[in-house]
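User: Show me a protein chain along with its predicted structure.
Assistant: Here is one chain, sequence first, then structure tokens.
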Amino acid sequence: MNQKIVIAGSGFAGMWAAISAARAVSLAGKQNQVEVMVVSPTPQLHIRPRLYEAVIENMAPDIAPLLEAIGVRHLAGTVEAIHADRREVEVLGTDGERVTLPYDRFVLAAGSRLFMPNVPGLKEHAFNVDQLASASALEKHLKALAHKPETAARNTVVVAGGGFTGIETVAEMPQRLRDILGQDAKIRVVVLEQAPAIGPDLGPVPRPVIEEALAECGVEVITSTGAVAIDAEGVTTSTGERIETHTVVWTAGARANPLAAQINGEHDRFGRVHADQYLRAKGAEGIFVTGDVAMVATDDEGHLAAMSCQHAVILGRVAGHNAAAELVGLPTHPYSQPKYVTCLDLGPWGALYTEGWDRQVKLTREAGKALKREINTQWIYPPKADRHAAFAVANPDFVIAA
């Protein structure tokens, strides 16, 4: 009887877990004994790190040919329940049918979701760039502004959340508005950040560069302030200010997919499952967690993997390899990712590239932008649908040389 590895999710972590698992099975010569299956609504990799951009073409490349080339099966559906005690998952298929899948190893790579607190009007009136459909809805809304009467509310965009995604979104917004409303339109673009400074998680070193870039792009930064109510005509802030706007974009953080809560063991404040260095869930045998659902150290200095594409890719490779290695008798591989970089898109100003957890600035403006373009258009996309080429970059310690 064949053994089965089930992977929930086909995002960055899920896709690379599938490739790495298939590679390990192939190395052991046990393709006919171990089946690797990916469960996700569609066999696509959604390029979420780029959804802040104005043009959102080719943001969901088809990975079905890749999965076929490496011998991985895809099941169109969503894992809804995890039964670790009997090593089964329940799947709701896109056809409406429910199936129960047994597994020998389960890899949870279901990603994260936008944090949506109980702010009045948030769900009804705000936009976001968390998923492709929501990014498309925002773009459609922005283009429709040109057909509305000119008012301050029409010409104003408020981005709620001044973290990484919020900064990238708001930096592009002045030019996006001018392209739609006219280069001479009197626009206002505001970013609200609850912390005392913009980009709180990015630290103090790159902050002056970020502030300079946003000012040059025409963005108004308001700190120590959040959105407490949103309606069709504006947003009310925590300081009592009313900003008239037809466009509020919510970018206030992420939380692990709710499936993570079904796995026994400790969870962090983002809902991520505590994992060991091999990405095994500490509270459930036979389960690996990876990507945005895994809380794990990147090094011996106390740094934790971020909920980012950068970490998800390697986390996926390690989880997939180890899930397969335990079944086929290969050595398992501990997760380690001591090198940390950021590349922050800052709209027409350029981009900011930093290295290290203290985020030392290495590239700015056009030099940074050139690197960001390479990352966004090449590095994060799936490998070609070629078995040998995919396996060549799927080993658990593979790192792209910058």
